[in-house]
């Protein structure tokens, strides 16, 4: 087992910063030695704050550093393909935020590069590392619900990101539901064969200009005979609401809860508990767990449990859902036409 | 206010018997004087058991009795149209189980008869009289969630009825989801404009022969700009699972719970509460409340809050959902093509 | 089985009126034919409203009516002893509100009268007929928690009754906790051997003048080796809060919930469900169930499951708790000194 | 702000090991440089495993090391007094596991030493650093429940420690309830004036030989006029059950939940969620948070929020509760006789 994995983080937006913070102080066996971000002095400030040796505004300088074993890519999605290829070419192991890339063509090139240069690649589907989803997977594998037959996913944001983000987000199916597409595969242990998707703009009328929806649902069929429906919403003004269900042949599972703290306030108006406000609170542990898994796999020379291929498949489903939403037709997934 | 409404019950299957039992002993201002059922001595036994004066195997004899003010029709669906018309012709007020009729043509004829003979007609959408759904309606009317934007319905049966029933049931959209179509209209105060529906046979393979599904979802758009998704399932082996959500512009509502008794059992295996086993336990009070409302309206000379027109509209949505499921196309509701 | 039990209700305060209403319209096999109350025209108005033949301001006239089979005594506690003895002398079966009497001496005389005249007597411990407590009893009898070892009771009122009531209430141990003393015996299937009680006035300072407390707890030991703690409070400003727990040798039970409707409101402030506001809402079904049980027993010629002896024992515990609270000493129950 | 606090851990039992692990890899600004334990090669193995420079079997060698800023004392309770005094004499800041000492005399000597040598001292009441209790404190401070009037604590272990431990544990009031005594002070912002305690041996009969109980309750009065009842149990065979309630003048709080994972399993037997099995799972984050607080205070030159005085007061209450249990008398706390 390797003593230490020397890491770099590229992109110091919110997620990139968390990964850096986790690697700098909470991940045994990792040493964060380099951070890169093109914006002003963000890299410099972060390096100083977290006690990191090196920083750069040019990603290439980071990727070319021979002392780096692994790179965390948290740059904007449109740069993913290029970053992936370069990182692979320099022999760096890769942790990349979802989605893998913007298009399937890019995904294929990135996967080819990863394989050619024999590097490890983990995609940031952190829900697999959340205590509730992971426990659900364990329960299913233990046979507690028999054969999993149906997955029902609910993912609701407490509001919409700004218009500038929505414009380049790829739409609600790519930006939000992709997590549930991955989780559905994970929990059902099956591959989607077709998807039908619907949606509406209920609140955020600016989305209409981009053909996006703030409330959407996709219905999926799977090769195992299972099915799923997956809702995504930008309209949960009450908080961040992430739930799942798996109906099985001998029992079912309900995943998630709306609770933030385990405290109920009782007044004349009723019994109130606070709701998880947003994803950082909900998935804080999951973000740490996934990076620990990545480093642990690298140290042990094992393959991460969620890789570039998983990234590509979730992208395929998301793109098919968007096409279904746009055309009103059921879309068969590649290989299941 | 009328002292007493003299009632008859036609059809003494499970629901008809409950209505009879409720009218016989629990509904102030109602007097059950006649029960009718074609099968053997069922009417006679029921009359004796509940202390009812008259019984008959021929529905016509009941409908022709001039002493009867109101009739509860709980006969098989294929007889509804004829029963409705005859009851109206004899000037009886009518409480009829859902669905109103099998076809829209029948529904139109029945509605015409009801109006021509100026009788009251209530349709058995008992969920509107359930404590949880009724409270949700009150909360929405009180403005607690702002404008209702989205309804999410889950209705799951603990298993499938026998094949003989499924064969003539009209399919899962008519037999099960029709309750949620009505409730969606009720809670959103809006009319559906289109529906897309999907489904699969996950467990009960015999359904394939009838083009039915044991797991289905419908996505509805409404004229208010709201939308809805409504799941129906025959696969909740764990119990009877009826839930709803309404997302509003300023808050949301979760309706229903899985609890049967307010008792939790704590053991080494965890904390367990029992789940409502089936619809009689879940909607016992609602069945009583709806009949009380019917009798109360008749005594006061007021119109029931859920009538033949509501019955027809829910039928329209259910038939459109079935068509969408069969054709793979989005179906516009009448008047919204 | 007797066709019909002819009933009278004495005392038309809140509880008496409910019993009258239930008997008049919801209890099969019961016919309410007489109501009595000394105050003004309350009896007359109630008789008219509920369609009852006879009414009186003098309880004796009611008790002397030979056509009456059973009498429901819901008069003030200080009249219980006299009412019980007279009713028994006239051969009436008796349903009496808790507490049985004010003193043990009165209780003994009443019990002697009931036995001498061989009438049935049920005491109004309605919690035994509540769905949650009854289910808990069934679970315990089914062995689901092994041997019951500990009962923890919480009974909280949303405020204090007026000073005039508190003055004659007998104090919090007699007025409130007596329900839990009975339920502890019921669930543990054991008899209390000693009690220690403590309390404070946290809010309602007028109680100090009467030596009463608005927050109290009693610790009980039982002859089976089990124990219990029982809290009573007048300070649950948030609602009516009735809970229980039974720790068993192989599992435990949690009884009750704070939920009123099965509806959760989700807003930026959190997830809120309303709390049962007061005992009528919480125990509405239990009040009906206990009267049905009483009538049913009379029709079948069976003994009610909770009788005058249960009433006396709960009174013994409550009086001992009050004595312990006043003296600071542990009090042994009669027969266990 | 100091860059780094150099730490040592004394006593590498379960809690000591966790503190060492947390300090070694998860606490920014701390550097664990020394571990000590008298047993065999435990110190050596731990040092190697966690990458710590030095280890010793003799606590004195650790305390004499001039490079150490702070020491975490997790040795057996009977050694606390000596360790505290020596650590203070050597000018080390001190984090000490509860209880502070075994006797009040020892506590006074330890407190004198801490003050004389002007070192910081934090006591391991980790519940104050648990998310739920901390949120409750914030809510109370924010005025959400008005004035806190009553605390109700429940602490139940899933079983008894071995007889050898019970023998030297000081009994259930010292070993278990001391946490709730501290939390009651914390949440009520008040000091206890008297305590009455009761208990029984319900299951673990070996405890009778030591005058201990496996089920106990204490009733406390406070100088603010508030009161509390605090249950402790070794009989929660279903799991680790830690709950609290605070009744306030304008609302109440319920603290804690039985849930381990946010997953419910639905089967024919009901809806089951797993229960927290034991304290490591329940208070994992709290143990980390308290050490972070300790280190953070040392770096900032601030006093820890829970100190040796808090340790002494909780001890006073626990000893008084034990005396009350043994004598059957209400015991006044020092200064409130």
Automatic annotation (TrEMBL), chains A, B, C, D:
One of its GO terms (molecular function) is inositol 2-dehydrogenase (NAD+) activity. InterPro entries: Gfo/Idh/MocA-like_OxRdtase_C, Gfo/Idh/MocA-like_OxRdtase_N, Myo_inos_IolG, NAD(P)-bd_dom_sf. Its EC number is 1.1.1.18. Residues 137-333 form the Gfo/Idh/MocA-like oxidoreductase C-terminal domain. Residues 5-125 form the Gfo/Idh/MocA-like oxidoreductase N-terminal domain. Keywords: Oxidoreductase. It comes from the Bacteria. It holds the Pfam family GFO_IDH_MocA_C. It is an enzyme of class 1 (oxidoreductase). NCBIfam families: myo_inos_iolG (TIGR04380). Belongs to the Gfo/Idh/MocA family. This is Inositol 2-dehydrogenase. It comes from Paenibacillus konkukensis.
